[in-house]
């Protein structure tokens, strides 16, 4: 397994496909809903095994010192193997290099403990995605 940034059209295709399959398809959301208007400004990280993308995540700057992580996903068959940790660490490093002093994110309730293990602290309730997936705001200081 290795973490890298997607570069080719084919790599981005596999990266976005994983995001859609894990984060949108189970809730009957259309293809394209796994992207937003900030894709071009984002730092994209994927983990691959051979040519298969098994993990994905994106970070971007909200302000000069605040970054946000979104679209973290790990293939169902590979969860619990440190892939999410690899993605998160890489994104944190890249965002810190871009000047971020802290990171915010909205975690699904099922992922809150994962983020807490990585130093994130709960900062209140966030939205409920698709009317059925409650999220918690979380924050981590980098400096």
Structure overview:
With 143 residues, the chain is of the alpha+beta class. The protein has one domain: Aminopeptidase (3-Layer(aba) Sandwich). It is built from 3 helices and 7 strands; from the N terminus they run βαβββαβαββ. It has helices at residues 9-23, 83-97, 112-117, and strands at residues 2-4, 43-49, 52-61, 66-74, 102-108, 121-129, 133-141. The protein has a 7-stranded mixed β-sheet, with helices on both faces. Strand 2 and strand 3 (52-61) form a beta hairpin. The longest helix is centred in the N-terminal third of the chain and has 15 residues, at 9-23. The model has no long low-confidence stretch (mean pLDDT 93).
Which labels suit this protein?
Aminopeptidase, 7-stranded mixed beta sheet, 3 helices, 25% helix, 38% strand
Question: Outline of this structure?
Answer:
Helix content is 25%, strand content 38%. It has 143 residues and is an alpha+beta fold.
Q: Mean of the pLDDT scores?
A: 93
SSE succession: EHEEEHEHEE
Helix content: 25-40%
- How many domains make up the 3D coordinates? 1
CATH architecture: 3-Layer(aba) Sandwich
Low-confidence parts, pLDDT < 50 over ≥5 residues? Answer: none
Relevant CATH superfamily = Gcn5-related N-acetyltransferase (GNAT)
Percentage of residues in strands: 35-45%
CATH topology grouping: Aminopeptidase
Instruction: Tell me the major beta sheet.
Output: 7 strands, mixed
Based on the structure, what is the oligomeric state of the protein chains? single chain
CATH class group: Alpha Beta
Q: Structural class of the helix and strand makeup? A: alpha+beta
CA-based shape: globular
**How many runs of DSSP E, i.e. beta strands?**
7
Our Rg estimate from Cα atoms comes to 14 Å
The main sheet orders its strands as 1-2-3-4-5-7-6
**Intertermini distance:** 29 Å
């Amino acid at each position: 397994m290795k973490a890298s940034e997607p570069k080719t059209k084919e790599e981005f295709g596999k990266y976005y496909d994983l995001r859609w399959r894990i984060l949108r398809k189970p809730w009957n959301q259309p293809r394209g809903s796994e992207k937003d208007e900030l894709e071009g400004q984002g730092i994209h990280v994927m983990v691959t095994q051979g040519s298969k993308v098994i993990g994905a995540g994106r970070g971007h700057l909200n302000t000069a010192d605040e970054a946000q992580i979104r679209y973290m996903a790990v293939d169902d068959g590979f969860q619990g193997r440190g892939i999410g940790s690899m993605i998160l660490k890489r994104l944190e490093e890249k965002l810190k290099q871009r000047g971020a002093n802290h990171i915010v994110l909205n975690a699904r309730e099922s992922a809150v403990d994962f983020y807490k293990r990585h130093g994130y602290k709960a900062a209140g309730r966030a939205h409920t995605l698709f009317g059925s997936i409650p999220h918690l705001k979380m924050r981590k200081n980098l400096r």
